[in-house]
Amino acid sequence: MVRNLFITFEGPEGAGKTSVLKAIVERLENEHIEFLSTREPGGIEIAEKIREIILNPEHTAMDAHTEALLYASARSQHFYEKVEPALQSGKLVLCDRFIDSSLVYQGIGRGLGIEKVRAINEFAIGTRMPDKTILFDLEPAIGLARIEANRQNEINRLDVESLAFHEKVRNGYLQLAVEDPNRIILIDANRPLKEVAEEAWLIVKSLIEEK
Ligand code: TYD
């Protein structure tokens, strides 16, 4: 049994992490490995409601501080209601986005500063960080073009931000990866989904085997 392993998936828009996560879920099911797969913002009823408020494209008046606090609120509820109990019961937990998203989207993209955003998140969830984070790196122009090509997917308030905003987000992620190389594993997402998914699966598999 995998004990207490918490892996998060991060990356800029259109990097394909959600599709990769789906592929990994299938592999885990085939191998009969017990796990919990979830996402942020959301993952449970209260946090999904907060998600609707944050991502509604009509909420253009939302202040960056409000946005950061709402993400932290959704994270807190999701963490204590779902993630922490699953980890406590010994499960492998895979989460599509987590605290790094706030550090880069709100801290750097919105310019609130990484340390301020880290502080409200420590209030929200304490100091628990993921054991490993897989970062799907991609040039924002390519990611946004992928989103444009898949218009049937939900378009949210952050997708429609400027290219400059998304460049800041991407550089923020790369900065975090340099600062925390033991936790953050970078994958080049500018390749066919199948290749990216295979690389991510090999990482997840080796983390499970190491545990
Ligand atoms: P989602 O549709 O889940 O996007 P993606 O498929 O790219 O993960 O929407 C989540 C959006 O919220 C995405 O634009 C990133 C943003 N976000 C933040 O800005 N801060 C956060 O803390 C989190 C969790 C997400």
Tally of distinct domains = 1
Low-confidence stretches: none
Distance between the termini: 9 Å
Tally of extended strands?
A: 5
Overall average residue pLDDT: 95
Choose one word for the global shape. globular
CATH topology: Rossmann fold
Instruction: Identify the CATH class.
Output: Alpha Beta
Neighbour order of strands in the largest sheet? 2-3-1-4-5
* CATH H-level superfamily: P-loop containing nucleotide triphosphate hydrolases
Structural class: alpha/beta
Taking the sheet with the most strands, its summary is: 5 strands, parallel
What are the secondary-structure elements, in order, as H or E?
Answer: EHEHHEHHEHHEH
In short:
The protein has 211 residues and is an alpha/beta fold.
Structure, explained:
- The protein has 211 residues and is of the alpha/beta class.
- The chain has a single domain (5-210), classed as P-loop containing nucleotide triphosphate hydrolases (Rossmann fold, 3-Layer(aba) Sandwich).
- It is 56% helix and 13% strand.
- It contains eight helices and five strands; from the N terminus they run βαβααβααβααβα.
- The termini are close together.
- The mean pLDDT is 95.
- The site of thymidine-5'-diphosphate (TYD) has 16 residues, from α4.
